[in-house]
Design a protein that fits this description.
Helix Hairpins, 5 helices, rod-shaped, seven-stranded antiparallel beta sheet
């Protein structure tokens, strides 16, 4: 028969062993540092205000058109083609202009013949002055008409007024061109501009020399440093945003109008601005407790600590911290869901 006291002793030892094992597991788990992402925060002027979407534009666009009306007989360029100043763009039917030149030449010949016949009478003082003046006027008018028709004939050939790249063709061979109707556009993309819409509450902080960083997905995310900024002064009535244009050099003409760009705009440039600027942190790192207070997790001596904060304005994907966090502190930006006060982190 089994001894009851002995069985109780074995059971007690088994339970104690389980408790010790569980305790050691918990202690081991508690001592394992949790992996988190952190950011050493600094003045707002040392970080970007946020990312904005921009569109690449040409630095200048020239609409090319005929001065007269006619049917286009030849189109000598295609979209995206590089052209030089003076290069032939298109031609229109010149037969009507050619006929006008011939008629003007005949009129000019007639006027010159009349002038030659009356010249002898004028030299002998046998011609009234008013008649002499009249024939001279006829010659001048004929010459003017001839010059106009020759210019119209010359304008039947359309040449590039500037060098650049053909942007868009509006007309093709066989279509009728009207006076001043654009046949195509020529774009200057040796330098380009990146157009960005900025909320009205942020436009005041942007100056012509504000630093910018521009990334273009079409060029595999290649990043460019923006140049001088042109600020618009008229707000969009619906979105309440202002357009800015960032000048950008374009060596090799790789940046093309219409490309979408991601634009990071720096908040301030000068040392004085940096010293007086407030702290910002990613919006995602800010938490709210049950009592409505906002806080972030900071890392001190390898452990997570909760710090209450006072929030300011939002700038893109970052938010201003008025109090509670100092410059140089290490704030947890990802992985904070699994930490608690005093948790070991790495």
């Amino acid at each position: 028969m089994i001894n009851i006291d002995k069985m109780k002793m074995i059971a007690t030892l088994f339970v104690a062993t389980l408790l010790v094992s569980c305790g050691n597991g918990k202690d081991k788990e508690a001592n394992t540092p949790l992996e988190v992402d952190t950011e050493v925060v600094g003045p707002a002027s040392s970080v970007t205000k946020g990312s904005y979407v921009g569109v690449v534009e040409e630095s200048a666009s020239t609409a090319v058109s005929f001065t007269g009306m006619g049917v286009i007989t030849m189109m000598n360029v295609s979209e995206g083609q590089l052209v030089s100043r003076g290069q032939l763009i298109a031609k229109m039917d010149a037969q009507q202009s050619l006929n006008a030149v011939k008629a003007a030449e005949a009129q000019m010949k007639q006027a010159n013949d009349a002038l030659a016949r009356l010249q002898q009478l004028h030299d002998k003082n046998s011609l009234p002055d008013i008649k002499w003046v009249e024939v001279q006027s006829q010659v001048a008018q004929a010459q003017s008409q001839l010059d106009m028709t020759k210019k119209a004939l010359q304008d039947c050939s359309l040449t590039a007024p500037v060098s650049g790249i053909v942007g868009k063709k509006m007309l093709s061979a066989g279509e009728t061109a009207l006076p001043s109707q654009a046949v195509c556009t020529i774009l200057n993309i040796n330098n380009v501009k990146v157009k960005v819409s900025i909320p009205e509450k942020e436009i005041a902080s942007i100056t012509p020399s504000t630093a910018t960083s521009i990334s273009v997905d079409a060029l595999e995310g290649e990043t460019f440093v923006g140049g001088r900024i042109e600020k618009g002064v008229t707000a969009d009535a619906i979105t309440h945003t202002y357009d800015i244009r960032i000048n950008l050099s374009n060596p090799g003409q790789r940046l093309l109008p219409g490309m979408v760009a991601s634009v990071d705009i720096q908040n301030g440039n000068s040392k004085a601005e940096a010293e007086s600027a407030t702290i910002t942190v990613p919006v995602r790192s800010v938490q709210q407790s049950a009592d409505g207070k906002h806080f972030v997790w900071v890392v001190k001596d390898g452990k997570a600590h909760r710090q209450n904060i006072t929030l300011g304005e939002t700038f893109g994907n970052r938010i201003e911290i008025l109090s509670g966090v100092k410059s140089g502190e290490n704030v947890i930006t990802a992985g904070y869901q699994k930490v608690s006060e005093g948790s070991a982190v790495k």
